Amino acid sequence: MIKYLLQGFLFGLAYVAPIGTQNLYVINTAMQKSKAETYKVALITILFDISLAISCFFGIGALIQKYYLLKLAILLFGFMVIIYIGVGLIRSSSQILEDKKLGNNSLIKIIISCFAVTWLNPQAIIDGSLLLGGFNASLPAEMSKYFILGVCMASVIWFSGLAGFVGKFSSKFNKIIKWINIICGLILIFYGLKLGYSFIEAIYL
Q1: Where, by residue number, does the polypeptide cross the bilayer (predicted)?
Q2: Which of 128, 132, 169, 196 is the most exposed place for a label (fewest CB within 10 A)?
């Protein structure tokens, strides 16, 4: 049991640690917002990340590959929402608030943003399904629950730790918050444009 739990935990860390849309959103929130909002974003991101990991573990990628319209819908919404978030970050770089307690987002906006950076990328879902689904197929049936539990634990520890670490040292980065915003925004726009290109490619190719 411990062996498979640890395997899942290590796999989960390798799965969530590389810089992506989720990490960028959590980092940016921790740099600018209050501790309460930072942990709110981290918690919601964790919930969506765990739901995605479990779905990938049981092969939701196959549904996206099977249902063409579902894939197109995710690509289109992902393109629009992630571009919107990226542009918002760049625009906010020109009006950084000194008081991190000001300008908190509504819960609905946070949920939509966290959902977008987690779920609105069909390629990530398909890749995740291949990785996690592949592991699921190779595990003894009675041990798979411990493996996916380890993956979920990694998500909780990673995002809560990331939020806490960046939030604690954010004051040291006050002078470069503007540029961090711009860089994060540009990377998110890049991710969004990739989704837009994939949407066009899926329609015309």
Answers
A1: 6-27, 39-62, 68-87, 107-126, 146-167, 179-200
A2: 169
